């Protein structure tokens, strides 16, 4: 999948967290539970997981250099990127700020 087709697939979806991960990445596994909790807090937020080993070009297109990397999109536009282990509280706070236009 290339960046343009990926953006088009997100265009109609509203807010989406895209989790760039790898099966060999320990911190990525830790983030699984955190992201599940975050998703449950928002009715209008979806989660997509992308394995960087399978979607290398897409990861590179979004500048993903470290894992885990989570990017928040709104209708296909990247709004914010979380790098490394990130707490549920930090992710929720940033999503609320962005949704409220701060």
TrEMBL record:
Pfam family, any one: Thioredoxin
Domain Thioredoxin per the UniProt entry, residue ranges: 1-100
Entry annotated with the keyword Metal-binding: no
Keywords tagged on the record: Disulfide bond, Electron transport, Redox-active center, Transport
S-S pairs: 25-28
Family: Belongs to the thioredoxin family.
PANTHER family attached to this UniProt entry: GEO12009P1
Record's protein name: Thioredoxin
Species for this entry: Sharpea porci
Lineage: Bacteria, Bacillati, Bacillota, Erysipelotrichia, Erysipelotrichales
